[in-house]
Specification:
78 residues, mainly beta, two-stranded antiparallel ribbon
C-alpha cells in the first residue's frame, strides 16, 4: 500500500505509527471497532510532488465484501 505523508511544522519521521484496517468502525454506544490487521511503521517522506511511501504488508489480508476502512494510529503525544 502507499501513503503520502506531507511535511508539516513538526518532523514526525522518527515517530512510529500503526497502519490499520477495519471491517467496521464503532458508531454508537455499546459497539466496538472490528480491527482486521495492523502494521507498525514509521512515516516516510518522499521528495517530489505528491510523493508516496510504499509499505509492504507482512501478511495477506482478505478484506470483507462491502465497506472497509484504512487509517493509522499515532503512538506519540504529538
Amino acid at each position: 500500500m502507499t501513503i503520502h505523508f506531507n511535511r508539516a511544522f513538526e518532523e514526525v519521521g522518527n515517530r512510529p505509527i500503526k497502519i490499520q484496517f477495519w471491517a467496521d468502525i464503532a458508531n454508537g454506544p455499546g459497539k466496538a471497532d472490528t480491527l482486521i490487521y495492523e502494521l507498525e511503521a514509521v512515516p516516510t517522506y518522499v521528495n517530489g510532488r505528491n510523493g508516496f511511501a510504499r509499505f509492504e504488508l507482512d501478511t495477506l489480508i482478505i478484506l470483507p465484501a462491502g465497506e472497509f476502512f484504512v487509517g493509522w494510529q499515532q503512538n506519540s503525544g504529538l
